[in-house]
């Protein structure tokens, strides 16, 4: 038999269909915990919004400065009052809308693991991301509910964002047949490709593509206008004519370069005004300097395959425009391939998403925004899912963020970020948003389509090997010193010193 934690009281116009209070008599409870109120017809499923202490003796200001240690048993008047948010009603194994309030005097108890799983929509064979705080219930979510309508992972720097993404990747590689494409801005996930005996080895399911060697063919005016959005109509017409002529000359193979286009612009055949011609050549030389364009594109549908993680390593790409165009081009290629049915249904994980899908930025520094907004609106119908990872939600496009039907929050304390996500996430209310600032490293809150109600949980431990960024600053310094000392000793031995 479950122990009663306390009883519902009449307090501040409650109990109601949305809120109740009870006096804690036994055990302990914590903010964010799930409890139930026993009723003759079933039980109310509740969420602990707040906890506070009460003592009627000290409601009188005259008593505050009295020394009662030997004259009055003040401690006997202490009580702990718990504020509950009523989420739903469970009756004969079915979840119902709350249409009547609990009665004062009804008992509050802990739900069982089975009741938690039923009420929150967790499933036995789902992706295991952690355990619900203060319980032994595992957070196992349906992969389609988590990803099909897109996922956003939001946290401040150092809150455990990359760690959680690694856990998600492990679960997908262990349990899903999806193709996984990860744009790795800082090279944080390349450890998945390294063989290991000490930890679980995912190297046979991982491939890394160095995007610094990536090339794009100039096969249409569209690619140029993404990088040069301020082209005049005269310049656009000239470029369309030149590209069309070059394509005809090489029989539509696309085997020409930006340099070939510059040569044609500089020729006398177009008869462009000097200022128009010189301006266009300057702009074309700028994009040629990005060292991104070649005669052909080294991209094909085989880059994505079932149950495989494809890491697109952007850590050696420093120019932001170049980085933007690579992400935009590959993402558009994958989405168009899904429309044609030539590539497997896949998940695109975009690290530092605010850099590529900014809320406010000039079009030449928001090259990737359009394709991500398109996938956010239409991708679920065609098997193209998004996972956006960001430490600055306020800089992230509201259009895309609002289309992510599941949000995972780790600690965020910036008030502007909190305001932005509260406006973009339907699953958050004022009280729940307050909880996000108090999360510790490794704790998370999930709201949205993947779960029926907001869930606070402890992220499970990783199975894969640590990444370079898992080490402390002191550990990295020690590692660097040992490596440097070894090089110097090897050099001394070589020189015979």
Would you report the number of β strands? Answer: 20
Count up the domains.
Answer: 3
**Main beta sheet strand tally, sense and closure:** 11 strands, mixed
Radius of gyration (CA) equals 29 Å
What form results from the Cα inertia axes?
elongated
Compute the number of helices.
14
- Considering DSSP H and I runs of 4 or more, what fraction of the residues is helical? 25-40%
Whole-Å distance between the termini? 78 Å
CATH fold annotation of the largest domain: Rossmann fold
Brief summary of the model shown:
The chain is built from 14 helices and 20 strands.
Identify the notable features of this structure and list them briefly.
497 residues, alpha/beta, Rossmann fold, 3 domains, eleven-stranded mixed beta sheet, six-stranded antiparallel β-barrel, elongated
Describe the model.
By secondary structure, the chain is an alpha/beta fold. It folds into three domains: 106 residues; 246 residues, 3-Layer(aba) Sandwich (Rossmann fold); 79 residues, no CATH class. The protein is built from 14 helices and 20 strands. An eleven-stranded mixed β-sheet has the order 9-8-20-19-18-10-17-16-11-15-12. Strands 1-2-5-4-3-7 form a six-stranded antiparallel barrel. β3 and β4 form a beta hairpin. α8 runs parallel beside α10. The longest helix has 23 residues. It is elongated and about 100 Å long. It starts with 5 loop residues before the first strand and ends with a helix.
């Amino acid at each position: 038999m479950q122990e009663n934690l306390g009883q519902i009281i009449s307090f501040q116009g409650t109990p109601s269909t949305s809120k109740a209070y009870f006096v804690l008599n036994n055990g302990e409870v914590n903010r964010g915990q799930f409890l139930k109120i026993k009723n003759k017809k079933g039980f109310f499923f509740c969420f602990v919004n707040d906890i506070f202490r009460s003592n009627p003796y000290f409601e009188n200001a005259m008593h505050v400065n009295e020394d009662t240690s030997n004259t009055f048993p003040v401690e006997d008047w202490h009580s702990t009052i718990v504020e509950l948010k009523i989420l739903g009603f469970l009756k004969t194994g079915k979840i119902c809308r709350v249409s009547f309030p609990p009665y004062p005097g009804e008992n509050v108890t802990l739900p069982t693991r089975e009741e938690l799983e039923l009420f929150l929509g967790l499933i036995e064979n789902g992706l295991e991301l952690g355990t619900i705080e203060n319980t032994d219930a595992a957070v196992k979510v349906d992969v389609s509910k988590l990803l099909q309508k897109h996922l956003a992972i939001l946290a401040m720097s150092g809150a455990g964002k990359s760690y959680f993404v690694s856990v998600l990747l492990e679960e997908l590689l262990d349990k899903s047949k999806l193709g996984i494409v990860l744009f790795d801005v800082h090279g944080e996930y390349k450890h998945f490709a390294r063989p290991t005996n000490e930890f679980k080895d995912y190297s046979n399911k991982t491939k890394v593509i160095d995007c610094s060697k990536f090339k794009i063919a100039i096969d249409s005016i569209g690619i140029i206008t993404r990088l040069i959005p301020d082209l005049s109509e005269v310049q656009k017409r000239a470029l369309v004519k030149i590209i069309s002529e070059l394509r005809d000359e090489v029989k539509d193979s696309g085997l020409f370069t930006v340099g070939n286009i510059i040569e044609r612009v500089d020729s006398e055949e177009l008869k462009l005004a000097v200022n128009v011609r010189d301006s266009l050549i300057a702009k074309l030389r700028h994009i040629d300097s990005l060292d991104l364009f070649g005669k052909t594109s080294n991209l094909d549908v085989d880059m994505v395959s079932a149950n495989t993680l494809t890491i697109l390593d952007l850590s050696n790409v420093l120019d932001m425009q170049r980085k933007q165009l690579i992400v935009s081009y590959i993402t558009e290629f994958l989405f168009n391939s899904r429309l044609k049915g030539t590539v497997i249904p896949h998940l695109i994980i975009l690290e530092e998403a605010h850099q590529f899908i900014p809320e406010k930025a000039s079009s030449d520094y928001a090259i990737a925004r359009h394709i991500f907004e398109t996938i956010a609106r239409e991708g679920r119908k065609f098997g193209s899912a998004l996972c956006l990872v960001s430490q600055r939600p306020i800089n992230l496009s509201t259009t895309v963020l609002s289309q992510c039907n599941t949000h995972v929050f780790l600690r965020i304390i910036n008030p502007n970020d909190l305001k932005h996500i509260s406006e973009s996430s339907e699953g958050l209310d004022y009280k729940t948003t307050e909880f996000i600032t108090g999360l510790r490293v490794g704790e998370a809150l999930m709201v949205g389509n993947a779960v029926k109600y907001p869930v606070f949980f402890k992220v499970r431990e990783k199975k894969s090997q640590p990444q370079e960024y898992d080490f402390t600053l002191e550990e990295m310094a020690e590692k660097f010193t040992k490596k440097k000392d070894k090089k110097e000793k090897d050099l001394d031995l070589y020189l015979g010193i």
